[in-house]
Design brief:
The complex is a heterodimer of chains A (304) and B (322). Chain A has 304 residues and is an alpha/beta fold. Chain A has ten helices and twelve strands. In chain A, the strands form two sheets. Chain A has a seven-stranded mixed sheet with strand order 3-2-4-5-1-6-7, with helices on both faces. A five-stranded antiparallel sheet of chain A has the order 8-9-10-12-11, with helices on one face. In chain A, strand 2, helix 2 and strand 3 form a beta-alpha-beta unit. The longest helix of chain A has 21 residues. In chain B, strands 3-9-4-8-7-5-6 form a seven-stranded parallel sheet, with helices on both faces. The chains are: A alpha/beta (304), B alpha/beta (322). Chains A and B meet through helix 4, helix 8, helix 9 and helix 10 of A and helix 8 and helix 9 of B.
């Protein structure tokens, strides 16, 4: 059961409703579970337009649903599993407002990951993109992240890039140096208690709320344990405060290169390989990995 | 997360654990490991079953007999059947190091009724005899459960006051008062708790200052305190395996668990797999920091683990009966 993942570019409410209601009605006729995740004004319009199917469509507010890409992937997967064996037909409208370039890039990657995570679910996703309000970069990205794009007419996208290749491109794109003021703690034994204290104290001093402090400590401990298991010394952790965003980077001198998809695809259970890195991605806002001549570095970023 | 920067570990130092903030999370000066009971302690042991009672009393008894301390056990049981006395208590009885006193002689009056004054006199006499015989200390233990049944609470409380006056100022004697909590209404338990400075609990199975593992009896399982990380997985795994092998329905008391690393979930699941079909490893009193991770990944990704009792906030825990 393959995934159908299409971008739907629209202008104005009328075109939005024409495309999305036809898609959801078609799903209901085929016996699929109809789900609509959209911005509040679009949810309201869809509810009204689909009044005769009252109760048959699950609606979600996209501003709640799209807060953290890895958590959103998990929420969708949990939803698909809950509704199984029914297939899911979902209107999936991400929120693009208020993102800086980096966050926008993470959400574009998220759209690419949909193709991997839901590959075998038989689900059908229609992702509406508002031509009038969205930046050109976002509109252009639909052709890379969706195998099929509806832009007036529906056609297969020649620019589509498979998720793994997309992820490799994305990881190569970034490289931001650590600031000179970053504090450093060498990791010299497999007892990671000093690391946890080091990270917790600085995260707390940086004003992170307690839950975020704990999440960062758990994530940093996992990355360090992984470095101890697979990397090579010297190892250590840097922590710095980037204008309220706490950064924690764990580095070692080895060359373990995680697969670009590792930690994005939700594992079935905590026994699966990849559970650790996936949970790390859930716990913090950003995870960046970089492998170079000087070692492997995993940077965790979290803000209030 | 960390321990308070405690001074050199004095023999009977009180454990005060701190959380990540460095603030005192909870002090439990009101409980003491059986191995740490010292002269002047008038401790009580509310037990939920014979295995719990024998585990703890056995340590108290054996510790006396292993050193130059006298052990006074007030009971109608056969000396051979007492916990901690070893296979042959005869030599200890003969030397006077072990004194097993039937209740009729130690604490009942001529009509077979509980007589607190007589118990106090017995304790004073035994302690004096122990001192005269040059023992380093005198340990006293008895089970109050029959007295509670026979004489009711007021007599018992009066008696506890007497014992308190005898033992507390002493540099020589220490007492462990056993009571079957199943035979004792909650209000009576609270009243008895008030007459003791300390509650005695089992010795830790493991304690490295970061992770502490303590056996629990009701419910049966382990209390995992402090921090679990990769450096301590093998150890926790050993104790989990033993608990799982010993019987069904293993519960983990997580009330004092400050940190569980992600691979720790993997460890718990693998041990839960060894339970009988349909059984789960039940996690009681999960702290918010651990529960937050579980909620994030979803319980369905943790097969064999189940949420147990919901955590009582620590500032209220003091009001809950031991």
């Amino acid at each position: 059961m393959t995934l159908t993942h299409r971008a739907f570019l629209y202008t104005g409410r009328e075109e939005f409703l024409a495309g999305t209601t036809a898609f959801l009605r078609d799903g209901l006729e085929r016996g699929a579970a109809a789900v609509a995740v959209a911005r509040p004004e679009n949810v309201a319009a869809l509810r009204a337009a689909l009044a005769e199917h009252d109760g048959a469509v699950e609606f979600y507010d996209a501003t709640e649903f799209y807060r953290h890409p890895v958590r959103t992937l998990k929420s969708y997967l949990d939803l698909v599993e809950r509704l199984a064996p029914q297939r899911v037909h979902a209107v999936a409208e991400p929120v693009w407002d208020g993102h800086d370039a980096e966050r926008r890039a993470e959400w574009i990657r998220y759209e690419s990951l949909i193709n991997e995570v839901f590959a075998d679910t038989g689900a059908s996703a229609l992702c509406p993109y508002d031509r009038r309000t969205l930046p050109a970069e976002v509109l252009a990205s639909t052709r890379v992240t969706h195998p099929v794009v509806i832009d007036g007419a529906e056609r297969r996208s020649p620019d589509y890039v498979a998720p793994r290749a997309f992820g490799e491109r994305r990881e190569r794109a970034r490289r931001v140096e650590r600031p000179p003021g970053a504090e450093y703690l060498p990791i010299v034994s497999d007892d990671l208690r000093p690391l946890r204290s080091f990270v917790a104290a600085r995260a707390r001093a940086g004003g992170l709320p307690e839950t975020a402090v704990r999440n960062l400590v758990t994530a940093a401990n996992e990355v360090a344990a992984n470095a101890l298991a697979h990397g090579s010394p010297p190892m250590g952790a840097w922590v710095w405060n980037d204008d309220g965003e706490i950064n924690c980077e764990i580095g070692d001198n080895g060359h373990w290169r995680p697969d670009p998809l590792t930690g994005f695809v939700p594992p079935k259970s905590a026994l699966d390989t990849g559970f650790g890195l996936w949970t790390v991605r859930l716990l913090v806002d950003y995870v960046e990995m970089r492998g170079g001549w000087d070692g492997t570095f995993v940077r965790l970023r979290i803000c209030r | 997360m960390r321990w308070a920067s405690h001074p050199a570990p004095a023999a009977y130092a009180e454990a005060i654990r701190t959380d990540l903030d460095g603030q005192a999370m909870r002090s439990w000066f009101d409980t003491r490991c059986v191995g740490d009971v010292r002269p002047g302690d008038h401790a009580w042991l509310p037990y939920s079953g014979a295995d719990e009672r024998d585990h703890i009393v056995g340590r108290f008894v054996a510790a006396a007999l292993a050193t130059r301390e006298k052990l006074v056990y007030i009971t109608d049981a056969d000396p051979d059947a007492l916990p901690g006395v070893g296979a042959d208590p005869g030599a200890h009885l003969a030397s006077g190091q072990l004194s097993v006193l039937p209740r009729a002689h130690a604490c009942l009056d001529g009509y077979g009724a509980f007589d607190p004054a007589r118990l106090a006199a017995t304790i004073e006499r035994e302690v004096a005899a122990g001192v005269a015989a040059d023992f380093r200390a005198v340990r006293i233990t008895l089970d109050y459960t029959p007295m509670l049944r026979e004489g009711g609470l007021p007599g018992l409380l009066g008696c506890e006051d007497e014992v308190e006056h005898t033992v507390a100022p002493s540099t020589m004697s220490m007492a462990v008062c056993q009571i079957d909590r199943r035979a004792c209404p909650p209000a009576d338990l609270a009243a008895l708790a008030g007459t003791h400075d300390l509650r005695v609990e089992p010795d830790a199975l493991y304690d490295d200052g970061t992770l502490r593992i303590v056996p629990t009896f009701a419910p049966r399982g382990l209390r995992v305190e402090g921090e679990v990380d990769a450096a301590r997985h093998a150890l926790l795994g050993d104790h989990l395996a033993r608990a799982v092998a010993a019987g069904h329905g293993v519960r983990l008391d997580c009330a004092r668990l400050d940190f569980l690393d992600l691979a720790g979930f993997n460890l718990l699941i693998r041990h839960a797999e060894a339970l009988r079909p349909g059984e789960a490893l039940i996690l009681d009193d999960l702290p918010p920091s651990v529960e937050n991770v579980i909620d994030m990944v979803g319980w369905h990704r943790l097969p064999g683990l189940r949420r147990g009792r919901v955590r009582v906030p620590l500032d209220q825990a003091g009001e809950v009966l031991p």
